[in-house]
Structures are given as structure tokens and as C-alpha cells.
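Render this sequence as a predicted structure.
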Amino acid sequence: MPNSGPAYGKCRYCKRRFKRTGKPGRKQEYCTPQCRRRAQRERNTGTAPTPINPLPLARNIAESVQAMAQTLLASEYGEQDLETLLRQAGELTREVEYYICAAVQDARRKGTGWEAVAAAASVSAATARSRWAEKSVRRRLERRASEQLALRQRDPATPSVPPRTEGQAGVQPAERSASKLAAALSHLHRNSGLTIRQVAESTHLSPSYVSRIMSGERLPNWPVVALLTDLFEGDPDELAVLWESAHGMTLPARQPLPEAAARLNAALRGLYLAAASPSSERIHEASGGTLSVRIIEDILAGRTVPDWKTTASFIQAVGGTPNDIRPLWESVHYAFLVFLDPVDGDTPLPAPFGAGTGGHATNQKPNQDASGG
């Protein structure tokens, strides 16, 4: 008897397993049209995927140490009770210990020998090896990442750093994402040169409904977003995170590194589209000169994961709210820790932001038709 079960294949681009449609004709080689287009684009340009730059693990923790020290200082000036002061001091001390582990890990990854580590820490080489053995450090940093995720899931409203957003008091992240999604779709629509009536005729949606989507009065379902983005010759993946955030979908606790990096880049690309795709020079000016044109282009192309300060500067320069994106950025760091010690020997190497996901986020959307809102 022939096997009547579903047929699976491995995508030639992102290397993920997918269920083939079973349609007659040429064998399906890509999991999504997006993967097929990206593979074609790379063949045409003769470029190969560029690996993600290694992440400085200690920098993220150093920023957290700074924020916690500021909190402790504010409590001291506010004459908080001794119990509060000692609790905050204990948390700060624990975070400093995590920082030391991460700093040693970063140095070791750059090729620093144990003798140099021992000299920097004023301990013997044997003590350094014992105290900061790679597996031991990795376990500690993974424990910290799990604690951070658990804290954020228990109280999603608590930001990792004190919020500094102005002019958006009382506005929830979902509302901001919905507004950015509408702005991004409106920008793509303007660039397409199509009228509202032409869009309605091509998508079988009513002109009034299309108009309300572009103005932000209606939040469309995912099939409508994908349909409109394809019509405007955009990439639906770049709007996926905005759409999920607009619907209040929570971030999975753990993700593979390529997927976590792709979600972060999709969020940044979505904010960039919502800002009407400003030039790198304009973003450089909007950042007050803190971002170079080169780093802006690398961020948009998905060639690097910058530190949080740089990422936050980019987000602010394109009109976004850093605290909305911070969980995605931290998820990349957590995924990188897991990547350093993969359970499966076949775990793929880090891919660029655009690779490794294809339409994966699309496949997770609810099964909705394209006729409603």
C-alpha cells in the first residue's frame, strides 16, 4: 500500500521541514513564496547569507546593572526603608556577578587565554578555570535569561529599563503597533501608485474597508494584511510582528536563534516602513548623529544585532517606542546562549535576519479568511 500520509520536504532556503501541498506539477522546493523570492534574489545578485555578528553577552547585563544602580540611588534619595534598600542592593550584586561571568565568556570567545583572564581578575589560572568554566557560565546565564523571561511574563507591564517615552502617556503597546501597522500599509500603498478602488477590485474588498484600514480605523486580519502587502509588492514578513503586537499576541518564551533574530529585524523593518522608509542619512540625523549610516544599513539589512543602546537609538529615530521592542532584542540574546550549547547536533548555524524563517511567522497566524476585518 502506498503511504497516504502527508509528504514533507526541507526548504532549500531556510532548511526548515514543511508539509508539501500535494498539488501536481513541479516538486515543491521552498516552504513559502518568500523563501523562493529570497533565494532567487540571492542567485541574481550572487550574494550568500551573511552570519549574524557574535553578540556581546556582557553589554546587555552592563546596561541592566546601570539601570538597577540608578534605581537604588533613587531609593536612597527617596529614603526608602532598609529592607527595600538591601533587597535592591542584593539584586544589583547578583547582576554584577552575572556580568562578570558574561564578560569572561566574551573574552574567551575572542581568544583570550586563561592566564590573561586570571591576571585581569587577580586570581590563579586554576581558580579562573574552575570559577568561569564555559558550561558553568552558560548555565548561570541561561538561569538569568529564564528569570528575566519569567519576570516579564508575570508582569508584562514592567519594562526592563525605566521608560523615557514622551507624548504617548496612556497609549498601550498594542495601540501603538496597530497605528504603526496602518502607517506601514499606507506607505506601501502610496508607493504602489494604486487607487483605493483599484486595490478593492484586486482584493475583492470594499473600497470603504480598504480606506479604513489605511487610515487605521480598522485592524485587519492576517490574510488581508498579507494580501495587501503582496499587492503593494512588499514583504508580508516585515509586518508580521507589528500585526501580532497589534493583536496582543505574546512572545514565545524560547525560540531558535534564526527565528528570534528574524522577528527582531521584522519589527525594526516594520517601524522603518511605518516611518515611510526614510533614507539612512535622515535616520542618522534623527538619531542626533549617534548612528552611523553604515550601522543603519547593517541593521536594516539584518547583517548585525547591535547593542541595546544602538537598537534603542534606531527605534527612536524611526518614531518607535524602545520598550515595545526590548523583549524581542532580549530574546535574541537568550537564543544565542542556547545556540552556544545546542542539544541537537544538526542545529543550523546562525542565519542572517531575513533567512531561516521565510513564512514561518505567517504559518502561525490564525486561519482566517480574507473577507473580513
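Summary. Residues 134 and 170 are 44 Å apart (CA to CA). The mean pLDDT is 76.
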